[in-house]
What does this fold into?
Amino acid sequence: MEVVALVTLTLFLGGLVALVAFALGKRKEELRGEAEQTSDCASSTAKGPAAKKLKQEKLLRGRKNKSPQHDFSHPLLACSLKGHSGIVTSLDFSSNGKYLASCSDDRTVRIWSTKDFLNRDHKYMRANVELDHATLVCFTPDSRAFITWLSYGDTIRVFKMIKKDDGTMSFKPAAKDFPIKHKGSIINIGMADTGKFLMSAYNDTTINIWNLKGEILASINTNQMTNSYVAVSPCGRFVASCGFTPDVKVWEVCFSKTGEFKEVTRAFELKGHSAGVHAFAFSNDSHKMVTVSKDGTWKLWNTDVEYKKQQDPYLLKTVPCSSSKGSLAALSPDGRVVAISDGCNVALYNASSGELEEQILSIHSFEVTALRFDVTGRFLACSGDKAIRVFHNAPGYRAIIKDMQDMLKKAQNEGMKQRLQQQISDAQKALRAAKLASSVH
Ligand SMILES: *[C@@H]1O[C@H](CO)[C@@H](O)[C@H](O)[C@H]1NC(C)=O
Ligand SMILES: *[C@@H]1O[C@H](CO)[C@@H](O)[C@H](O)[C@H]1NC(C)=O
Ligand SMILES: *[C@@H]1O[C@H](CO)[C@@H](O)[C@H](O)[C@H]1NC(C)=O
It folds into this structure.
């Protein structure tokens, strides 16, 4: 058992060393050809979703083709996914780990192959959004369809992904879009991993819960003055919301044993911030949440509680961070790394010590619109202009090195010990070099 684990980790680390070395090589290449950096983001003072929308509309109207290419390089950059001709507003990884979906006002949704991230070419498949464009995209749990929010249509459109014999895919919109049930500014959509419901949330205090046929099951009033972020938990049981008030509210969407919708009930709240909460994220098992607030901190919570027995979630960590309206949060699948965006910057933290591990500045021309770890936790993807940036999750790698060191202490077999030692020192060397390159920058 232990040997199998060791072999797996060793293989992983071998890959990691190659990967970091690769990132460094590429970095050198990029430095050679580096052009001037332009950043509308750095000079802009306007913040938040409203300002974001305004900026995006301005861009759409006049400067779509004139807007300067934002040149960016960073030692942890794994790749830049280029192809969209408009700002990317939403990203989602499929649960099978194979795809990354992105959408933009260029009227396309693009499906990228995650196994190409470290290749030179990044292939994508393209779904056209006829007579409209998608502002939000999310995969269905079976990774065989995705749902979109239509900008003009103001509703949900579902696309089936149909695999053709030659391995490519075609995309077929469902016969009918969902009916329009609420007039408001959308902030997020989601689908439960159980496949039982969909969610649409607006910047007033409304969350709608739908069945897959496009019928409303329930409408929630969050009573939070305004909603700033809403999401479905990865386990598919909960919907959580945050906004103007300092608490994060979590509801359970309840179904009977036979799968009939029953009700939406209040589950628990995260209480502790002293000002409005910009956003939050779950770990992949829904046992932890991270929240980022206007009070200038992020907080990590243990939400693996039996709320029906009056157990409250508890606070694990509070860490000062820079944040602003529109800030987003991401938590690596294993819950070990926290990512927080502030404008067009992203910071990575060790979730248990709270230490700031990486600060990546001016990633995009505009405010970060989406921030996601992939399902393996190896990559962090973000958007904020035409390009999607994918970074190596270096703090996550460091955590794995730490695990290898712990395994080394327990290792019995001499050959295995030597191999572990070699791998650890190679990985440390590569990470140190990456650090050095970033401080030069
Ligand atoms: C919702 O967003 C719209 C458009 O961005 C904005 O005009 C409106 O003021 C927002 N409403 C609230 C309650 O924040
Ligand atoms: C969560 O991610 C970890 C680390 O990548 C993985 O081992 C685990 O199986 C995932 N759990 C779920 C519920 O997806
Ligand atoms: C994060 O912090 C914890 C607690 O201080 C430490 O044990 C762990 O090694 C750190 N992880 C990394 C990747 O540095």
In short: The chain has two domains: 76-393, 401-440. The chain is about 20% helix and 35% strand.
